[in-house]
Design a protein that fits this description.
alpha/beta; 6-stranded parallel β-sheet; 10 helices; globular
């Protein structure tokens, strides 16, 4: 994420005045998506060794601050998107965090937090979450299950982590080795259904770089051109439906980190072009 920020800053595609350090999400924001006891124990460093192992990195005050700011950044991106049409959090996409625990390098679920914050602030009534990370957004699906005002759509690898899948409003699972055309055909179908059924005022798009063919954890076979086409479809379908898009980066584990940065940067560049 630091390399991505450097790339965006050096490229000039976003004016320096339009790049902001986010405010952290407050307790009230976190508690719309997370259990009070979990938030308290994360904040106080009281997670058990098993809970810390499930998250995947050690507890520290910096970890708490980073997690709060990552959620705050998606909230800020939502506000900016509602004003400008498109905006991005240059991190985020922590979709494996549940209401009462974290996992898979995710502590707080920024998509669920941001969606409910926009509703609480009366900026959006209905939200669609379009999750194109290669891993299912299991925490997002679990937190928002039964909430008819926030529609969850996940396009992911069938046999990839998490091995127990939750039920999103719409799940499309692809087999290992699926390439550009299979992915894009599934996305076309899923976007049409999700945008029609959600009747959303705002989209939160998790633009994972991990469907890339040289991703260590991805198991799909998308090219950079295929991922760029994915972004174009999401942005243009939402734009055509009059839905602003807030973007988060989600996962990326390419063998060469420069590939992950390239993919995320291409997403940001396309959004910046559309935002004008």
């Amino acid at each position: 994420y630091a390399l991505l920020r450097e790339r965006v800053a050096a490229s000039g595609v976003v004016a320096p005045a339009d790049m902001h350090v986010p405010e952290p999400a407050g307790d009230a924001d976190l508690l719309r998506a997370h259990a009070a006891d979990y938030v308290r124990r994360v904040q106080g460093g009281q997670l058990t060794p098993q809970e810390i192992r499930r998250i995947g990195f050690p507890w520290s005050p910096g970890m708490v601050e980073r997690s709060r700011r990552s959620s705050g950044a998606t909230m800020a991106a939502c506000r900016a998107a509602l004003r400008d049409g498109f905006a991005a959090n240059l991190a985020g996409g922590t979709h494996h965090a549940y209401a009462d625990h974290g996992e898979g390098y995710c502590v707080f679920n920024d998509s669920a937090i941001a969606a409910r914050a926009m509703q609480a602030e009366r900026r959006a009534r209905r939200v669609v979450i379009v999750d194109c990370d290669v891993h299912q957004g299991n925490g997002t699906a679990a937190i928002l299950a039964g909430d008819e005002t926030i529609y969850t759509f996940s396009l992911h690898g069938a046999k990839n982590f998490p091995f127990h899948k939750e039920q999103s409003d719409l799940d499309i699972a692809l087999e290992d080795e699926a390439g550009d055309q299979e992915f894009l055909d599934a996305l076309d179908h899923g976007l049409c259904q999700a945008l029609e059924q959600s009747r959303a005022d705002l989209a939160i798009y998790l633009a994972g770089a991990d469907p890339f063919h040289d991703d260590k954890l991805g198991r799909l076979k998308l090219t950079k051109a295929g991922l760029a086409e994915r972004d174009r479809m999401v942005f243009e379908y939402c734009q055509g439906a009059g839905i602003p898009v807030a973007i988060s980066m989600a996962g990326g584990y390419a063998r060469d980190v420069r590939d992950t940065v390239d993919i995320h940067f291409a997403t940001v560049r396309r959004a910046a072009e559309l935002a004008g």
